[in-house]
Design goal:
This protein has 385 residues and is α/β, with parallel strands linked by helices. Helix content is 41%, strand content 21%.
Length: 385
């Protein structure tokens, strides 16, 4: 067995900040059996200026977007360096998802903010980013990637659901797709309700509202839900298709939030029902388990509505430690970066719908190392397994 220590970084569509997760992975490359230990994890919130810049990035000029691409690289490079130094961590690699600005696999493009070479200027170890582009080039959705990491790290659960800006599902790490919008919408509604709020604490605002059946019906009729997997969502699609239905000038925001909670919970249950309809010898003889992670797992109203509906299916909702709940995405992107450095597939066509599995990610080396740093170093690590 060998161990590898890396930092995973993730910035989600909900704009709550940059998730940083330092993880020690222990495993055997020959058998591909892996475990993990979270060493340190934290979320560094964006200040008001960066929140505004990221939220408006899709509407700026081409030159302004390139400038933002570079400046965001400097920002996350400084944040990662500070995180490593303040926690006195001996890090062997860093992986970062970046911040998605455009994602349109139907037209073969995706774009995550943060120049890799700019970020690597602040690091003394390899930096891996740009995970989605190759899969999109293969005709895949370029999302979700979390199920690719679940294949190795979360096999104990039948279903993994992450409630981030967008909710997605993974099945035994081999299949997965985006289910619906989630915190991206709820956070916007909470901020409209009270400008001092970035999200709905414990789902309190939603709990005060009632379900608007006419609004719920409009949400449920969106064509996306009738598309078969693989499929993925983007902030642009949400802005165009969901937010106009949630008309804050015609309805009270608590009612809209409670209605959207109902919508999300229903879509989550439908996704679980689809999983249960798939024959699987591993799950047929026992009660299925669902691991719930992401910021939405702390929305008690959403979780309670989901749990009540899930219990009718005879499916069990599983709790996990707080760090795993909060930082599972960042943890998995660290693992995908490790796989990239190994030169081993880290994106699977069964999940994304691409023509081929792929080794995805761009590796940026620190200035002080030779070009064969990654291969030499990790061959040495493998020799001590």
């Amino acid at each position: 067995m060998a161990s590898y220590v890396g930092v995973g970084c993730k910035s989600g569509s909900s704009l709550d900040g940059l998730d940083l997760c330092c993880v020690e992975f222990t495993g055997d490359r020959d058998t591909d059996v892996w475990g993990y230990r979270i060493v340190k994890a934290d979320t560094l919130p964006y200040d008001r200026e960066w929140t505004s810049r990221l939220a408006g990035a899709r509407d700026v000029s081409g030159e302004a977007l390139i400038r933002l691409h570079v400046e965001y690289g400097h920002l996350i490079g400084k944040i990662i360096k500070k995180f490593i130094e303040e926690n006195d961590i001996d890090v062997e690699f860093v992986s970062c998802h970046g911040h998605t600005i455009f994602h349109n696999p139907a037209q073969n493009y995706t774009f995550q903010l943060g120049v890799g070479e700019t970020v690597s200027r602040y690091l003394d170890c390899p930096f891996v980013c740009n995970f989605r582009s190759k899969d999109v080039a293969f005709g895949g959705q370029g999302a979700p990637f979390v199920p690719c990491g679940e294949k190795y790290l979360f096999q104990a659960y039948d279903i993994c659901i992450n409630l981030g800006g967008i909710a997605n599902i993974g099945l035994h790490g081999s299949k997965g797709y985006d289910i619906s919008a989630c915190n991206y919408v709820l956070n916007k509604l909470a901020s409209n309700h009270d400008v001092s709020l970035n999200y709905d604490p414990d789902g309190r605002i939603a709990r005060q509202g009632r379900v608007l059946k006419n609004v719920l019906e409009k949400l449920d009729l969106l064509p996306f839900y009738r598309k078969p997997p693989p499929k993925s969502l983007s902030a642009k699609w949400i802005d165009k298709n969901i937010l106009p239905i949630l008309d804050t000038t015609s309805y009270k925001i608590p009612d809209l939030m409670r209605t959207f909670v109902e919508h999300v919970a229903c879509k989550l249950v439908e996704a679980c029902q689809e999983v249960q309809s798939i024959p699987d010898k591993q799950t047929s003889a026992k009660k299925m388990t669902v691991l719930l992670t992401g910021g939405g797992a702390f929305n008690k109203t959403l979780v309670d509505v989901f749990r009540r509906k899930l219990e009718k299916l005879g499916t069990h909702l599983v709790s996990s430690d707080k760090d795993t709940v909060c930082f599972k995405d960042a943890l998995i992107f660290a693992f995908l970066g490790l796989k990239c450095i190994f030169g081993e597939p880290n994106v699977f066509k069964e999940v994304t719908g691409g023509e081929s599995d792929s080794v995805s990610g761009s590796i940026h080396l620190p200035v002080s190392t030779s070009n064969d740093y990654c291969l030499t170093y990790f061959r040495k690590k493998k020799s001590i397994i």
